[in-house]
Sequence to fold (279 residues):
Amino acid sequence: MFGLGRRKAAESGQEPPRRECGILDAYCMERPAPQQMLDIFRGEWSSKMPAGCGLSTAPGHAPLFEDDRVAWAVAQAGGVAGRRILELGPLEGGHSYMLEKAGAAEVVAVEANQRSLLKCLCIKEVFQLRHVRYLFGDCVAFMEHDAGGWDMVFASGILYHMKEPARFLRLLPRMAPRLLLWTHYFDERIVRGTPAIAHKFGPLQTGTIDGFAYEFVEQQYKEALGWSGFCGGSAETSLWLSRDSIVGYLGHLGYRRIEYGFETPDHPNGPAFALYAER
Fold:
């Protein structure tokens, strides 16, 4: 049909209509190669590829395939060889990649963002990950219906994207006896004193869950929602807990060993820290 229309236009002496960018631009006519798979999402990547692999991503600044936080968590857990890990919010597969390399027997990763999931699946294929399985959907809904029995929950970069972070934390002990959590948190002095982010946060509020009182604020994503590579939460806002609320509630939930690392009160996106916890 397209060829016929072009021929008729030529016979009449008229210039055929120009085609806007559309479905045909989604085809690749080059020899198949891993780089071309990654380039499907050029301009949307947060992660840079591991050194020496010969692959690149754009903009791809975060070293999530060579992340010291993962190595630290693995060491705190006494290794993950032969263990089953539930990963919540895998983003672009960098931590899944590292956990498989560390010897995990199974990594099941739950991702709610469509484009993040597709990037994870590209990574799974590019690096031939054989012990990683990705699921598409909400991790809270998954945990509410899952039987548990995992060896470890790996939750990096997800708590501060939650609409109900306390509810999320409440579900973790039933999943596994070990937990890695990396997250931003709200600190009144730091956040209010940082003009670049202060405008995103509402007033400090309090809530109660299981008899435990906690503090939180509402955070707005604002202009970040306009980026095709957006990797935040599923709503225009999320709730950030205070550091004391996070640590205190985990203790309330029965985590007896809690180790801290990667304290970054001056992180450009807001104060952050990592913790490893065991029940």
About this structure: The longest strand covers residues 212-220. The CA atoms of residues 88 and 276 lie 15 Å apart. The radius of gyration is 22 Å. The chain has ten helices and twelve strands.
